[in-house]
Design a protein that fits this description.
253 residues; mainly beta; four-stranded antiparallel β-sheet; 0% helix; five-stranded mixed β-sheet; single chain
Length: 253
């Protein structure tokens, strides 16, 4: 004998709609803000004046490649041969926030979101969802998304191969661009070669550790800059390049 429960709900034709739009100008940056406006109107005409508006805002890691620079890697690169050990992959559900407000006489309500911190420094997608219920308790929602950049500068890396002989170093090309993909010259690039290892923490959990093997600083140019790195021994390594913009905002590849 088995049991299974189901829920039967009455269907009601929607009487109104909720739409959202981003009213602030792009690009949206860390240490800046974005504004999303929700509008609730009846299909038959008229607005839901004074209706309560519930906002749900979530932020998740995203990716961004400046236009015309698809031959370079920006942000975190995952090699095809290794999707990452499951036991050290952190679960990152993102961040979630709730806000409440009340629509004005036109059925509109705006939410301004300030972007105060971001770590690791990577492009982030922020989704704002507005939910409105009418006097008949019918609820409708609308969503808008915003891409938030960690910095006004992006650093890109490119290498011919991801395997090298343990007696040979390897050479990378590095560029620095703005958000629109324009090359920027004279920007310091901090490049760190990190040797990857594994051990156990004090709680007996297996973890990944990074050990600095080499660290150099170069400056960007009109053409890609050549960076030569020499690992001290065979193994797995991670290359981390970082730049900051004029406001001190960090970006990393």
């Amino acid at each position: 004998v088995g049991y299974h429960s189901i829920t039967v709900q009455e269907f009601r034709r929607p009487e109104f709609e909720v739409s959202t739009e981003v009213t602030s100008a792009e690009p949206h940056m860390l240490q800046g803000s974005a504004t999303v406006k929700a509008s609730a109107v009846y299909y038959a005409g008229g607005s839901l004046a004074g209706a309560e508006v519930d906002w749900q805002v979530s932020a998740t890691a995203s990716a961004y490649t400046p236009p015309g620079r698809a031959d370079f890697t920006f942000g975190r690169w995952t090699p095809w041969r290794n999707m990452g050990p499951w036991w050290i992959t952190p679960y990152n559900p993102g961040s979630h926030h709730s806000f409440q407000g009340r629509a004005n006489s036109d059925g509109e309500h705006s939410l301004e979101m300030g972007f105060v911190q971001m770590f690791p420094p990577q492009p982030t997608t922020v989704t704002a969802t507005a939910s409105v219920a009418d006097v008949n308790r019918q609820q409708r929602s609308g969503s808008s998304t915003v891409l938030v950049h960690p910095s006004a500068r992006y650093v890109g890396l490119k290498t011919e191969k991801s395997f090298v002989d343990d007696k040979s170093g390897f050479v990378l090309d590095a560029i620095v661009t703005d958000i629109d993909g324009n090359m920027l010259m004279g920007v310091p690039i901090s490049v760190t070669l990190l040797e990857i290892g594994y051990d156990y923490d004090e709680n007996g959990n297996y973890r990944e550790i990074e050990k600095i093997a080499q660290k150099i600083t170069v400056r960007s140019a009109e053409a890609p800059v050549k960076i030569e790195l020499s690992p001290p021994r065979g193994g797995s390594y991670r290359i981390r390049a970082e730049v900051t913009d004029e406001q001190g905002r960090l970006n990393r590849t």
